[in-house]
Specification:
This protein is an all-alpha fold. The chain is 83% helix and 0% strand.
Length: 109
């Protein structure tokens, strides 16, 4: 059987106890900071802000892709407008504005 007798001096034992108390105090302080309401709220705010930033970033990329796709429909590779597509869309837009103006005029009068 192995000898389990402690061969440390009383001073070594006291120093070990002191180190363990200090380590325990640090651990308790850290736990206290982690569970403090301000820390919890701050962590939650940071997490929400990060999520919002990530979501907005993804939305920006998606919108940018859609705008680029739509632009590609109306502008050629050199940047010149594709009249065969621009003119019909412009005519439809003018027609819709005219109908809206006519409807507003009829409601008033």
């Amino acid at each position: 059987m192995a000898d389990t007798a402690d061969t440390r001096t009383p001073a070594e034992i006291e120093a070990d106890i002191r180190r363990r108390r200090e380590a325990l105090a640090e651990t308790l302080d850290e736990i206290g900071m982690r569970v403090h309401p301000k820390t919890i709220v701050g962590d939650a705010k940071a997490k929400v802000a990060s999520h919002v930033d990530h979501t907005l970033g993804r939305a920006y990329v998606q919108v940018n892709r859609v705008v680029s796709d739509v632009r590609a429909q109306f502008v050629d590779e050199q940047g010149a407008p594709r009249l065969e597509r621009v003119v019909p869309v412009a005519l439809v837009a003018v027609g819709l504005v005219g109908l809206l103006a006519l409807g507003a005029r009829r409601r008033r009068g």
